[in-house]
Design goal:
The protein is of the alpha+beta class and about 160 residues long. The protein is about 50% helix and about 20% strand. The longest helix is centred in the first third of the chain and has 18 residues.
């Protein structure tokens, strides 16, 4: 469920849903292409910008006004519509896989099985954060490796 701005004339006639174009400088309404419309997931979000859009619409429509209303039909079309990022990912799969491979080569994931006594020692060395949550395995190992690196640089 999404909230949008319903456009009305000064005679209280509903026109459609507000959308903007030309870098948010031009205002118009539509009843067909609801994916163009200004919409928010919460009523609070819609209220946050309402005054700005309402005053601009009032000027554009020569006395009209906006109302925040639920756009139930938009939520159905939104779930089936793909985002720009998803469409780009599908159109450029090769580029996506290549960049992921380059990232993985620069930052490899290392896998090993430490001995049982090392695991016990690591559990003793594990610290807790401010919320009382124990340190993750990755952050524990990174912290210990950093300490070892510093000791080696000092000549130990």
């Amino acid at each position: 469920m999404y909230y949008g701005y319903r456009c009305y004339t000064k005679e209280d006639k509903p026109l459609g849903w507000l959308y903007t174009f030309s870098c948010d400088t031009e205002y118009a309404w539509t009843n067909k292409d609801l994916h163009w419309c200004k919409c928010w997931k919460t009523e609070r979000g819609a209220k946050k910008h309402f005054e700005h859009y309402d005053s601009r619409w009032h000027f554009k429509s020569q006395g009209g006004y906006l109302k925040i209303e639920v756009m139930p039909e938009f939520s159905q079309s939104q779930s089936s519509a793909k985002s720009n990022q998803q469409r780009w990912n599908e159109a450029n799969r090769d580029t996506l896989y290549q960049s992921q491979e380059n990232y993985n080569q620069k930052r490899p994931i290392m896998s090993f099985r430490p001995k049982a006594e090392l695991l016990e020692w690591l559990d003793e060395e594990r610290t807790s954060d401010d919320n009382g949550e124990p340190e993750s395995d990755a952050s524990l190992l990174n912290r210990k490796l950093e300490k070892l690196k510093n000791l080696e640089q000092q000549g130990f």
